[in-house]
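Input record (Table S2, row 301):
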Amino acid sequence: MSDNFLKFRDIASHDIQAVVDRASEMKAGALSDALAGRSVAILFEKPSLRTKLSFWVGTQKLGGNPIYFGPEEVGLGKREPVSDVAHVMSRMSEIVVIRTFLQSTIEEFASNASVPVINALTDQEHPCQALADILTITEQFGSVAGAKVAFIGDGNNVALSLGYAVVGLGGQLTIASPDGYKLSNDSLDGVNGYGEQLGGRVNQVTSPLEAVVDADIVYTDVWTSMGQETEAAERLVAFAGYQVNSEILDQASKNVKFMHDLPAHPGEEISEGLLYDPRSIAFDQAENRLWAQAALMEKLV
Ligand code: NVA
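Output record (norvaline complex):
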């Protein structure tokens, strides 16, 4: 695989299953000291609970030392040029984990860094979430290729990385979004071009009910992502009718599982209490961030 994990397709398709399998082993207790004597710099320009905690704890589980910089601290590209920060961090840490806005910022950072750089969410992709998601789907269904996945909501960073992850393992994903909030044609062509040789495919539809027919997984994410707060009111209107609730899950496969990358907004993209529905595996998904990212970091060093 590439030295960096800036977008999901940086993992060679033959490495995806290996990382997922290694994550399962780690979850079962087979850790390593891959990060002993190494430091992981974690630089976030947006809020985080799961990603910060999972990178911090995952680094420590592999014997490494995490150092966290919050949104107000570094001033990436403002207080100091992105390239200078990349050079400095490369001199004092062995992996850099970044959560930022523009994909171009993390690409610029990586092109100036001499250590592996991991995307912990940009406006365009959330590849670490997708790695944890395919681990979670594999735990439930044995394989991703054998599971039918439906994503209801915004054609956003989570949807795009999920698309690459599912098709990378030969699976099928149907995304239901209102017009104006679908994946762009370029993104859809990109993910389907990648999936073509691997037997996987992403379809886009408008109707949530159409997407969930026979679905083994129904997945959703927030309607308003970090950085889009000024659009919140218009998004509430646009996504009315896209809530995942018990009635929607009842239309899917009998053994359907519900997934959400969190944080969730009950009353918006999910109904009250849905995270605690027996069909929900959202907290398995959250825990799996830890194991998927630990396996990723081990692979990168
Ligand atoms: N799409 C969401 C994911 C949060 C983990 C966002 O970018 O805010």
